[in-house]
Amino acid sequence: MNNQDEQLLVKQADNIIKNSVVFSMGAGLIPVPVADFMAVTAVQIEMIRRLCKVYDVDFKETEGKAAIMALTSSGVARLSGRMLAKMVPFVGSIIGGVAVSALSGAATYALGEVFKRHFSEGGTFLNFDWSSFKNFYNEKFEKGKEYSAQVRKEYEEQHKNDFRHSTNETLDALQRLHGMKVSGAINEEDYNKLKAEIMKKVSSSI
Question: Domain count of the chain?
Answer without folding.
Answer: 1
